Amino acid sequence: MPVTYVIKFEVVPEKRDEFLELLNGVLDAMRGEPVLHRAILHRDPASANRFMLYETWESHEDVLAVQVNRPYREAWHRALPELLSEPRDISIWEPMRANLQAI
Fold this sequence. Notes:
The chain is an alpha+beta fold. It is 30% helix and 28% strand. It contains three helices and four strands, in the order E-H-E-E-H-H-E. It has helices at residues 16-30, 60-65, 74-83, and strands at residues 3-10, 36-43, 50-57, 89-93. It has a four-stranded antiparallel sheet. A hairpin with a 6-residue loop joins strand 2 and strand 3 (50-57).
């Protein structure tokens, strides 16, 4: 069953460019994953350093067993403690319905 992760980030202001560079590398690599349905990065219009990542994958089990361990995520995971002003806020959701249009 598909699963959606909503991940919120509070980025250290002077680390914003590094955060985006590393995250964009991960998102570019994820694009090739056949079990990824979609990933959308959002920025809070009220805060240039607050981001929300919305990812839908084919299965939670695959994410835990395979996806989080992909080599392209290593630098990202190592850097997160220095890039964030607080721990990520991660919530898990089950998709029920979608009305999709190109962004």
